[in-house]
Amino acid sequence: xxxLVKIFILFNVFILFGACLTVQAxxxxxxxxTKIDYSDYYNHRKIVMILLDTSDSMSSxxxxxxxxxxxxxxxxxxxxxxxxxxxxxxxxxxxxxxxKYRNTAKIIxxxxxxxxxxxxxxxKTLEETVNNDFFHSQLKKKIIxxxxxxxxxxxxxxxxxxxxxxxxxxxxxxxxxxxxxxxxKCLSDATNGTFYSVTSKESFTN
Length: 206
Hints:
α6 links the parallel β4 and β5 (about 170-180). About 40% of the residues lie in helices and about 20% in strands. It is built from eight helices and six strands, in the order ααβαββααβαβαβα. Residues about 1-10, about 15 and about 20-40 have low confidence and may be disordered. It has a six-stranded mixed beta sheet, sandwiched between helices. α5 (about 120-135) runs parallel beside α6 (about 155-165). The longest helix has 26 residues, at about 1-25.
């Protein structure tokens, strides 16, 4: 009889212990998994478009402009999508390469093929870059504009970029101006970019 009582007590203790474990399991707070933060990944990825002026006015400076552009290429990260547009002719631009990773060879090919001809559609080329080459991208964006100065196709690039910068904070413009003046500095100023006035390849690389 005493043995039966002991067995009964042990059985009830076992039942109560199991019930407590079950309650604790259901009361336990769910595990909070840390969300993966990709912000640093995107911060290191960019789109860079080189815009090279190939109008008539660049005839005397085209080789210096090409050399200056080529000197930039080793400094551009492999995480950067790099593209090239040239502009001139009948107020138009030519997309030599859409932004791509590890695109240096294609960029050099496009630079080497550039020949000065025609007028200078700076505003139109900026618009095409913003609306087409940067379309639907969430990456940081930079334009490297290499030119000797003025839009000769009736556009006002300064006015366009000032208006754009009020609604777009993801685009930076660096201006490399071939010559000794500060024309188009308005573009870099409006986008927190950098302005360079270049009279020789050495003056830029230094």
